[in-house]
Amino acid sequence: MMNRVSANEIPAPAPRSTEPSQLATELVERLKYRIGKDPKVAKPHDWLTAAILVVRDRITDKWMDSTRRTYATGAKRVYYLSLEFLIGRLMRDAMTNIGLMDEMREALASLGVDIDIIAELEPDAALGNGGLGRLAACFIESMATTDVPAYGYGIRYVHGLFRQQIADGWQVELPETWLAHGNPWEFERRESSYEIGFGGAVETLDLGDGKQRFVWKPAERVIATAYDTPAVGWRAKRVNTLRLWAANPIDPILLDAFNAGDHIGALRDSNKAESLTRVLYPADATPAGQELRLRQEFFFSSASLQDILRRHLQQYPDFSSLPDAVAIQLNDTHPAVSVAELVRLLTDMHGLDFDTAWDLTRRTFGYTNHTLLPEALESWPVPLFERLLPRHMQIVYAINAKILIEARKERGADDQSVRNISLIEEGGERRVRMGNLAFVGSHSVNGVSALHTELMKETVFADLHRLYPDRINNKTNGITPRRWLMQCNPGLFNLIRESIGDAFEDDAEQLKALDRFAGDSAFRERFAAIKRENKVRLANLVQARIGVRLDPGAMFDIQIKRIHEYKRQLLNIVEAVALYDQIRSRPELDWVPRVKLFAGKAAPSYHNAKLIIKLANDVARVINNDPAVRGLLKVVFVPNYNVSLAEVMVPAADLSEQISTAGMEASGTGNMKFALNGALTIGTLDGANVEMRDHVGAENIVIFGMTADEVARVRAEGHNPRAIIEGSPELSQALSAISSGVFSPDDRGRFAGLIDGLYNHDWFMVAADFDAYAKAQRDVDALWSDTAAWNSKAVLNTARMGWFSSDRTIRQYATEIWGA
């Protein structure tokens, strides 16, 4: 029998060499023995894989050391549950954080390989949609940077979010095949596999003395298998784990059916299991789509919780210490079913009574809310929830009874408050409210900007806030400066380091030392020259992708984010049409050359969002080909927005569009990325824009439009958008041109419905805010004409954005929520 050697008896490996010559040797070894290629015939993708494996080896040493340290010290672990992790390409990030970029560049060059060329071949991991997923990625990196032991838990999507193509101006969704050739960063963990059940029935066992035990017998079962990717922090102080779940059937193939000739039916279970992890956010406009979405959410939540409890019992004798050893953060409502699942696991699988399990659950979970939109606070039809998760439906009812009795008897809640607090929405179709479940099942509920947090208390969670007045708190979002300055804008990063030293690399708030250079003309010129280089890079990308030539001397006015009516890409497009009319009508005026760039994806079933993409492309076709404009205005929609595209667009922006309807954007993080890279913001007082104004100075940001309070009042009292439109000649003319088919001669009624919506209800205040927006844009033109003033403000934006580092955000979470 083999003797097991304890971990303490295994000598720690000597640190691996960072000498370029040794790295070159290892690169050749990886090519030969891991990829099976002679260096003489290796292709660029082979060198990419070899480079990743060499870097991964060094990270793995630090990864294992981090895990040992956590076990040895008994440090509290944080588990971050998120349906999205928009991590982007990892090679540059990893090499930068472990301090190996220059050495790897030299090693590859000695072998005749350009690191920049192979880095561009790394696919973006298609694990997210937008801000929610990118925030999760920044947080995982910052947890490692700030030495917080953590796991990120999510789904290993085979295709993830779709790859966007534009065909005749329309969005076309295609599979994103990022895993087609494997993923050299990840490690499969076959030992970390768990059964996940769906459907079936619940049996009640009488244990005597009035005690019962509930046994869920699922009708379907799948296996969740873990795949781990190391998440390395700055200077490799800690390496944490991103654990993603893949779904596999219990029986991959039904041989009897296959041999009987039913080749499709034989793979039924396999296809059903694999569909769980094939696509991010399956369209939920149909009952089948809704069911798949709920299955996904339960699948990854259950697997993650089973894994967390297993790990806890490896170190502790029971679950009484769970809230002291474990903090679980729910990133939005997608993992909210975890509240019921943890209660089920503790009671049904580990024998705790309900009250004890509920107390442990509530003390362990924290919930981050990301939206005030009622439709985005997920809810599921009770029949669907009960059919798919019958035991969890029982638990939800039990939790609800406990909460409502407390609200009514101990807090004196009235009927309306009880209805608002209930986990079951009773008006019309009965639905399970996942936002309410996450709220009552957590000891902490946080918003992601100061404004958003206050609005949570007043709107979607007003009654729950009155019931639990100490539960809601604020944690304003942040971004990692490693990805969003150091890596995406090396020219600016090097200028800053040369000017103020390197303290800001470890503490982003040290960027404040740049303030004194805002008045330095020589510094401003170098700052502006770097911006122009970044604009040339973006112009080259646009030329290559869509064949539109851009002038780097023009103002690059950029709006990149998910396409949604509340984010108001439509407002931006309508203003472009109005500006187009003015340039043609008043050619004698000194117009500022401007390029309006858009990028973003629309949900496949979101008709108006897809129509807005088509409108942007139709408007671009007309304006960009009209000689009367003389190149003074161009409109560009760049397809397939992802992290890598953002890394090119963000450093190139002169003007950042953050123009959501006030009170509807929880925070935003694109606003922070742009400002950190020296773009001025034009925006509403929404989300984190409010705090950005406070940090960068009101004189260094362009604010327009209605406030959240004003929007709420106008919606409550009613307003007349038609009168507003008819009273604004510029707006009326632009909307008439769009509605009548000037930009869609092949289908003159294409946009009539979209524009009618502005005349009839204007829920997102596009018409209401148009004149203020147009005026603010002309103020931007005037400022752009004063180059020294513009560049001074750009420098001050970079200097004053250090507070918006995700390191600061994570330290606040760790201290004020997690106790980690």
From TrEMBL:
Reactions catalysed according to its record: [(1->4)-alpha-D-glucosyl](n) + phosphate = [(1->4)-alpha-D-glucosyl](n-1) + alpha-D-glucose 1-phosphate
GO biological process entries: glycogen catabolic process
Cofactor needs: pyridoxal 5'-phosphate
Positions of post-translational N6-(pyridoxal phosphate)lysine modification: K673
GO CC annotation: cytoplasm
Domain of life: Bacteria
Presence of the UniProt keyword Nuclease in the record: no
PROSITE patterns: PHOSPHORYLASE
Membership in a protein family: Belongs to the glycogen phosphorylase family.
UniProt name for this protein: Alpha-1,4 glucan phosphorylase
